[in-house]
Amino acid sequence: MSIAITTQFICFTVLSLVVIIGALGVVLLESIVYSAFLLGGVFMSVAGLYLLLNASFVAAAQVLVYVGAVNVLIIFAIMLVNKKEDLKPINDIKSRRVISTSICLTLLSLLIRVDLTNVWSLSTPQNSIGEESTIRIGEHLFSDYLLPFEVASVLLLMAMIGAIVLARRDVMSKDISTGLPVDQELIEKSSEPLLTNKN
Amino acid sequence: MEYGLDLEYSFNEFLKGFGLSSEIAHIIWLPLPMLLVLVAAVVGVLVTVWLERKISAAAQQRIGPEYAGALGVLQPIADGLKLLVKEDIIPAKADGILFTAGPILVLVPVILSWLIVPFGQNLLISNVGIGIFLWIALSSIQPIGLLMSGYASNNKYSLLGGLRAAAQSISYEIPLALSVLAIVLMTNSLSTVDIVNQQSGAGILSWNIWRQPVGFIVFWICALAECERLPFDLPEAEEELVAGYQTEYAGMKFALFYLGSYINLILSALLVSILYLGGWGFPIPVELIAKFLNLPINAPFIQVFTASIGIVMTVLKAYLLVFIAILLRWTTPRVRIDQLLDLGWKFLLPISLANLLITAGLKLAFPQFFGG
């Protein structure tokens, strides 16, 4: 085995172990903050796996989007509502665990079956395009994948508008979850309420 | 344009002369540029700390450090030694693991970003194709480290500082990336080497600052905000938050934050000089001077000379920007948090978007000036 292949093998083993153990930790750990940070580690390792596959642009995009945006926002949200309260004990926790474990195992067996039955080797040997992949991704985004790309942007816009409506308490007079009148004093308000006093 | 020193190639050939295989030679070569860049970054920090002390003293009509070495040049080393031998304290109710991991997560991405900083045609660790995008991606990891240390300190000021740092970093990343995008549009490449080469045509006249004046200012403001320098040092605003996320840190862990913020400042200054001020280019193209003096551009002596000029020019431009940053720090008041977010989202973001659009239009209209 040459040095390059050995290095690649060691990197692959370490990254896969980090992904698997980290993902188990995200699900099994009691502390939600640890889970969130471990999720960041899992995302980073997935980016490392992309790097091993010569997809440097996808790896950098993975870091930028998943670690830099998604994970930061998850942690941000956890810390903003960082209540020090114990979760209510659930009565039938054991049966729930059995059900969820069996569902997960079923999915896992499905994946293993796909892995075993699918023919992974390519019929024609393809050279890795390496650095050129950035250009190819751009071409695809603006030709045959244009519609999914634009639809995704519409989805993000909808999510953004929803977040703004939820965050601006002067839009709604009632709290969505509790139904109580919203405490309007807590948050900086605009001088003119938008919808509540229309008349 | 394949010219300039290729130290890696020469080094590998040299080792092969001893009968080593090319793989072994490559492995021996690999740590050298990394070590060199790490040393360069730390020395750069020492110089910047000294400059900061001296310039702030001058701005406030004091003398500044005076006795540690000539003009106090050894003062930063004394600071570093002090932090090195201080006791490493972890507060009793802090979260030990996250408390230790936070500063590391802040420092490592910043040092990794030096991968793409070129000091000459081949004088960089790795000319990766995604170049400047790698820096944007890596710099987005930093807020996680800040949130982590803010949370783990178990202190309300630290938590607020960490939250502020993350909010600030997320909001200023977008205009930053958009102004970089305008440069990439003109270069047709993400690679930092290509970005500098594209500006090397006519010396100082072809630098990107003349074609991207708005982008330059937006990028510089955002870079300062990303480095949490005053006027944007809200995460550690001492009047409001004691010291933000670093409140509970002492000794070497604090030193990691300190190093991280100064390395980040130098890195930002280097990237501004690469993106907008022609990188390693001399104001008058070196090739023109060589032709004028009838010197062969490919002679080894000239190659070494131009490479040194390149390094000196890059560092000189970067330190000019560091000087401006220090002056700004000691002459401007801090903005409020709402002013900071307003500036980021309502002013810089639309302006950088418009800048990108106009650049794209100009590129279509005048392809010879704005990159075809």
Automatic annotation (TrEMBL), chain B:
Organism field: Prochlorococcus marinus str. MIT 9314
Record-linked InterPro entries: NADH_UbQ_OxRdtase_su1/FPO, NADH_UbQ_OxRdtase_su1_CS
Lipid bilayer topology: Multi-pass membrane protein
Quaternary structure and interacting proteins, as annotated: NDH-1 is composed of at least 11 different subunits.
Compartment(s) where it occurs, according to its Swiss-Prot or TrEMBL record: Cell membrane; Cellular thylakoid membrane; Membrane
EC numbers on record: 7.1.1.-
Record GO terms (molecular function): NADH dehydrogenase activity; oxidoreductase activity, acting on NAD(P)H, quinone or similar compound as acceptor; quinone binding
Keyword Protein biosynthesis carried by entry: no
Name by which UniProt lists this protein: NAD(P)H-quinone oxidoreductase subunit 1
UniProt keyword Secreted, yes or no: no
Enzyme class: translocase
GO cellular component, one term: plasma membrane-derived thylakoid membrane
Main location: membrane
A single GO BP: photosynthesis, light reaction
Family: Belongs to the complex I subunit 1 family.
